[in-house]
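Message: I would value a second opinion on how I read folds in token form. Give me a protein, with the fold worked out from its sequence. Write it directly below this note and I will take it from there.
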Amino acid sequence: MVLGNLLDNALEAATGDRERRIRLDVEQARGTLLLYVENAFDGKVRYAGGHGKPRLPLTRKPSGDHGHGLRNVQRVTEKYDGHMDITHDGGTFSVTVLLYENRGKA
């Protein structure tokens, strides 16, 4: 679910940009899983959240609806006591997720 949401967002963003670029790195070592997804995008970022919820970048669906991909990734990351980092600079957007094996909350 985490990787699917990250790739779905990256594909959507890169499709709308002149430079269609996506980078995916997946590493597993010593009980951890590291996911890194980077993509080109139009450079415009809008945020949702607040009121007790962390602010996350909005995804833009072709229909004008906003997705819940990053919110779902955040929920899974928190469930497994992991970490999520989102950065954007110019025309590059990246998400790094670190998950730990056997640390999920029941």
Notes: The chain is about 25% helix and 40% strand. Helices lie at 2-15, 69-79. Residues 2-15 form the longest helix (14 residues). The longest strand covers residues 32-40.
